[in-house]
Amino acid sequence: MKQLFYLLIFAFLGFGALAQNPSFSPSSFTAEDEVTITIDVTGTGMAGVADAYLWIFSNPGLSGGADGITNGSWTNSSEAAKLTPAGPNKFTYKFTGTTMFGQTPAQLKSFGFLLKKKDGSAQTQDYKPYFFDPLIFVPSLARVFPAKVDVDDVVSVNFDQRYAVSVKRPAYDAGNFYYYHV
């Protein structure tokens, strides 16, 4: 009987812990994708609050981190950081990593966040780290990688001969310089 009692207690504690884990849509994302965070604050200091605000930061525990542009100050969160209610003790928030942190995809490795009251008087634990997937080159006719280029980005151009109309090299033109690697 005692074993059954302990088993039930651990089961209820386990379900309570699962309720607080955030979920992401899509479940896998890069720094350039729009991500929706959904979190249930049941069992935290934020349970029962009507308004929750996101406090988000990049690269926790790594160098080169930045606070989210929507954070505001700890005692007065920005309205841009306000989460959308999604049910009792449940909130959602949408963001894109490169826009939120003002960093390039190469600079963004991971992020962390917490939910808090506007004045910072109550909060959840830190949820971290959540990793951005790396950008992957997918060959196509347009072959644009990355989708956006910043002054701090390094860009490589790879010409795939399978997409060439002709594989003949142009004749040397004394007025122009051609650099071809075949």
Summarize this, please?
The chain is an alpha+beta fold. Helix content is 13%, strand content 23%.
Average pLDDT, all residues: 82
Which sequence of strands runs across the widest sheet? 1-2-7-6
At the fold tier of CATH, the topology name of the domain at 22-131 is Immunoglobulin-like
Order of helices and strands: HEEEEEEEHEE
Radius of gyration: 24 Å
Largest sheet entry: 4 strands, antiparallel
Structural class: alpha+beta
Roughly what percent helix? 10-25%
Low-pLDDT ranges: 4-19
Tell me the distance between the termini.
76 Å
Q: Tell me, briefly, the overall form.
A: elongated
So how many helices? 2
Just give the CATH class of the domain at 22-131: Mainly Beta
CATH architecture label of the domain at 22-131: Sandwich
Please tally the β strands and state the result. Answer: 9
Strand content: 15-25%
Descriptive notes:
It is built from 2 helices and 9 strands, in the order H-E-E-E-E-E-E-E-H-E-E. With 182 residues, it is α+β, with helices and mostly antiparallel strands. Residues 4-19 have low confidence and may be disordered. The protein starts with a helix and ends in a 51-residue tail after the last strand. The radius of gyration is 24 Å and the shape is elongated. It has a domain at 22-131: Immunoglobulin-like (Sandwich), CATH 2.60.40. It has helices at residues 2-19, 97-101; strands spanning 23-25, 34-40, 53-58, 72-73, 76-77, 84-85, 90-96, 110-116, 127-131.
